[in-house]
Write a structure and sequence with these properties.
By secondary structure, the chain is mostly helical. It folds into 2 domains: 182 residues, Rossmann fold; 76 residues, Tyrosyl-Transfer RNA Synthetase (Orthogonal Bundle), CATH 1.10.240. 47% of the residues lie in helices and 7% in strands. The strands form 2 sheets. A 3-stranded parallel sheet has the order 1-2-3, with helices on one face. Strands 4-5 form a two-stranded parallel sheet. Helix 9 runs antiparallel to helix 12 and helix 10 crosses helix 11. The radius of gyration is 20 Å and the shape is globular. The structure holds tryptophanyl-5'AMP. The site of tryptophanyl-5'AMP has 24 residues, from strand 1, helix 1 and helix 7. Tryptophanyl-5'AMP binds next to strand 1, helix 1 and helix 7.
């Protein structure tokens, strides 16, 4: 579909607080692999961060910490372009044009807006509402063809594809923008909270025990794994038996991903053990 465009990867991470294991396994691990194979652009998307109020001084620190996190995870300035979104004003300019292409009906379907705005929608910023249009501008500004993200960004990427298609149709040039492909890891695209296996691991979750931050010390990580919610049943041999055990599935997925293994292999290794034995092994790895 994108035969007239050179392969180009684009992705972004918001500089809001600490990077966590969800960011790493869901997105950044993939960023590092992709920079070995193709041209990549990675942005610290501060214009996205201000859709929710940010203290300017803290935001500056968070931007620097996010860059440090990128480097610590293995991103290399010599291989990838790494930059701060607001330093390129064309992101905001193209976003305005996309505000005029995108449809209210499309934005009304965005589940992340509903989650973030909560019950008091009237009080949410307009920026939070049109944020997916800015995300489309980030990607299409560079005519990027591939976008590595976690599962929570899938809907925004579908919107980006709709915007690219509509723009191309409206202005009679079917090849003006590429239709970008999401790159979503099949098994680890949604790392869940350590306190509630039905919620994704997130920077905004109140309890720090719900996530493993990339800056946590070894002791903190061990403590968090120890306290992570599980259940009293033993680890099964078949992943179907984990369907109604989201916390158990999450910990086993995390373990599989960190050991570069698969859930099937982990189940073979751990079958019959209870979670206290499993957690001991899991926390020894950090
Ligand atoms: P952000 O900053 O919330 O998250 C950065 C990346 O981490 C992934 N992620 C997760 N993956 C698996 N499990 C989780 N619990 C988890 N939490 C976060 C996200 O999917 C994301 O890939 N809107 C985007 C940033 C953005 C962007 C872009 C991405 C702005 N412009 C253009 C791609 C292309 C966001 O808020 O990600």
């Amino acid at each position: 579909m994108n035969k007239n465009f050179k392969d180009l990867v684009f992705s972004g991470v918001q500089p809001t607080g600490n990077l966590h294991l969800g960011n790493y396994l869901g997105a950044m691990k993939n960023f590092v692999e992709l920079q070995k194979k193709t041209n990549c652009i990675y942005s610290i998307v501060d214009l996205h961060a201000i859709t929710i109020f940010q203290d300017p001084k803290e935001l500056n620190n968070s931007i620097l910490e996010t860059v440090a996190g990128f480097i610590a995870c293995g991103l290399d300035f010599k291989k990838s372009i790494i930059f701060n979104q607001s330093s390129v004003s064309e992101h905001a300019e193209l976003a305005w044009i996309f505000n005029c292409v995108s449809r209210l009906g499309w934005l009304n379907r965005m589940t992340q807006f509903k989650e973030k705005a909560g019950t008091n929608k009237e009080n949410a910023s307009v920026g939070l509402y049109v944020y997916p249009n800015l995300m489309a501008a980030d990607i299409l500004l560079y005519k990027a063809t591939h976008v590595p993200v976690g599962d929570d960004q899938k809907q925004h990427l579908e919107l980006c594809r709709d915007i690219a298609n509509k723009f191309n149709n409206d202005f009679g040039n079917s090849e003006f923008f590429p239709i970008p492909e999401p790159l979503i890891h099949k098994n680890f695209s949604r790392v869940m909270s350590l306190r509630d296996g039905k919620k994704k691991m997130s920077k905004s979750e109140e309890s720090d025990y719900s996530r493993i931050n990339l800056q946590d010390s070894e002791d903190e990580i061990k403590k968090k794994i120890k306290k992570a919610k599980t259940d009293s049943s033993a680890i099964p041999s078949d992943k179907k038996d984990l369907e109604k055990r989201p916390e158990a599935l999450n910990l086993l997925n995390i373990y599989s991903s960190i050991t570069s293994s698969t859930l099937e292999k982990t189940l073979k290794e751990m079958e019959g053990k209870d979670f206290s034995q499993f957690k001991k092994k899991n926390s020894l790895m950090y």
